[in-house]
Amino acid sequence: MKVGCIGLGDIARKAYLPVLSTQPGLELHLQTRTPATLHQVADTLRLPGERRHTSLDSLLAAGLDAAFVHAPTTVHPEIVTRLLEAGVPTYVDKPLAYELADSARLVDLAEQQGVCLFTGFNRRYAPGYTQCLDHPRELILMQKNRIGLPEEPRSMILDDFIHVVDTLRFLAPGPVDDVTVRARVRDGLLHHVVLQLGGDGFTALGVMNRLSGSAEEILEVSGQDSKRQVLNLAEVIDHKGQPTVRRRGDWVPVARQRGIEQAVLTFLDAVRAGRVLSARDALATHELCERVVRAVQDRSDAA
Predict the structure, then answer these.
(1) Tens digit of pLDDT for each residue in 280-294?
(2) For residue 89, which of 116, 149, 181, 183 is within the disulfide window of CB 3.0 to 4.6 Å?
(3) From CA 191, how far away is CA 187, in angstroms rounded?
């Protein structure tokens, strides 16, 4: 099975290549426009020259069975379009694109071509988060905070806050019928954003503060007089009377703890089985992110 990895930045090197390079029966090909990076990474993985590519044309000529896209978001539409048109099942590191129209076009194209398009929302596969599906979820609270990192609203929401948006959608126990957004924007930079989703019997609250003084990710689900808390995807605390703590095992790889390994294997298993995974639900997350972007921009304009 020939699999291409396009883009060799931090996320590819730290999270995806350690998984892909150890899969049996997988012939890994790398592509980046930067020769020095290409050869450095390929040398580390001991890949022969014919698996090293500096152009997408060269990579496609290798006859790929699947591809992983970890290039900058700005070039996702161009790269993913070419892969789908070539009939290559494609895994895209979120988001599909910065503009909703581009994301929708890619999803439509995948369906027209009958090709798998998979978005890397790894938190849907992270053990600590999937375990929350069996817990009462009358109230869902997720915080994903950073230190000293205010940013232009669209890039911040689509590159980072999208994880919060998708996780709330994933854990919501029913349809969402109310959406509220609050934010603080100063000098064109988004300092913090709060998303509230409401439905029958539940409320889901997502928070991102880019000036929080702490880099952290905290998820809490509660209801029926009990609470489950997940700290930085690694530590699960059940609160019902005396707290019970479950920590990540010492030998559990980070990629598995964060759900990346499981997401990769879900995609590869589908490709091997000839199943076409739909990107429609991923598109719904992009649509909700667009609502957040517009609400933040309206607040900025009003200020």
Answers:
(1) 999 999 999 999 999
(2) 116
(3) 10
Share of the chain above pLDDT 90, in %: 92
Residue 301 pLDDT level (bands cut at 50, 70, 90): low
Q: How many CB atoms are closer than 10 A to CB 256?
A: 17
Token pair for 234: 């690694």
- The whole-angstrom separation of Cα 128 and Cα 149 is 26
Residue type, 141: L
Cα separation of the two ends of the chain? 54
Local confidence band at 240 (pLDDT 50, 70, 90 cut-offs): confident
Please give the model's pTM, rounded to 2 decimal places.
0.94
- The fold for domain 2-121+260-277 equals Rossmann fold (3.40.50)
In three-state secondary structure terms, 217 is strand
Spatial CB neighbours of 221, under 8 Å, sequence gap ≥ 6: 132, 135, 136, 137, 139, 140, 141, 171, 227, 228
Following DSSP, what letter does each residue of 27-77 receive, concatenated? EEEEE-S-HHHHHHHHHHHT--GGGEESSHHHHHHT--SEEEE-S-GGGHH
Q: pLDDT tens digits, residue range 253-284? A: 888 999 999 999 999 999 999 999 999 999 99
CATH 3.30.360.10 domain locations along the chain: 123-252+288-302
Residues of the chain with CATH 3.40.50.720: 2-121+260-277
Residue 303 pLDDT: 56
Taking the CA of residue 288 as centre, how many other CA atoms within 13 Å lie in the half-sphere pointing to its CB? 26
- CATH (residue range 123-252+288-302): 3.30.360.10
